[in-house]
TrEMBL record:
Pfam families: PML_C. It comes from Mytilus coruscus (Sea mussel). Residues 288-361 form the PML C-terminal domain. It comes from the Eukaryota. GO terms for molecular function: nucleic acid binding. This is PML C-terminal domain-containing protein.
Amino acid sequence: MIKQSILALCDHPFRQHQSCNNSWCKFLDNPNEKFSSLPHGKPLSDGALQNALRSVFTTYAGNAGKLSSLGSTQQNESFNRIVASKAPKQQHYSSSGSLKFRIAACVAQKNEGNKFILDVNKNISVSPGYFTQRLAVLRDLQHRKRKAIANTYKFKQRRRNLKSTRHQKLATKEVREGVTYSSGIGLEDHPSDDIEEIPSPSLQPAYKMIEWTTKVNQIFFDIEATGLARNSHITQISATSDKGSINTYVLPKKPITPKAQEITGIKVEGSKMFCNDKEVKSKTKLLLPTLTPLTEKKIIISRTANVIAASGMSFSHLLLSYARDGRQGIEDVLKEEDVNGKVRVTKSKKIVDAISDFFKSLKPEA
């Protein structure tokens, strides 16, 4: 059975289920089922890849008898944690005379629980002690409680969700930062020139209702601009009161005059703002016009374009995401969450598919 299942792993992803088993293959009951772990739910089709997989798994299938006796490694991992608590690696116990006793205590705790201390004390004619006994009972009770919780469906589901979230964050960072986020990048002989980084989600201000009171709160505010002309653009807005303070930079569409730059210390280089030679985050609407190709062809609506621009992404960022990881790259950056857990743009598969199909239809030179 194990040998047959191992060999079936070579054919299962290619929608060849003649060697599969009903206990784990859902396609035998429903041939129209989609693959949940493959892109777009479609099977693999590369014959060379299938042959390479078959050569690997054939070796494992030849050792099916040895693999059949293997069990879970959770017990070993649990014991290793106990050893780490009594003989931590950062302490040099390997040449200590107490190491054997520490390991013996770990074995006793694993087999008998924390009450082994009481049995040891009794065997050497030492009173177990009220507090020692109370603590041992408490620790064993906590262990049984944690074990019972770990076996519940809710706990396992949460663990799967956390694992999925970690993988999603990793995939999103790989798309945003490109090859610079890949492991072993420093060992490559010919590093890629794809070093542009897609900006992380911009935090959007949270609007709260203000309750009217008879008490007057004094608010002091100030603004900085590109110059003294009536048509100057605002570059900085600051306000403070006894309730708190805010400070926001706005990327202007007009150049800052040398005098204003000298007084405020604010300057613009490309799409970045600097205050006293330190880069600052700024609000901008300059990214919205870059999304015109998507709105003109009704790939996305204006509201979606506003959300994309407000999150700090432009058309080139979306195109770069698609170039790095196709449809999955678009999906990863659009549904990335900020520090508050808010989705960057949307989780809508319809929007993701529309943008992906648009980029797919573009010519290579685009």
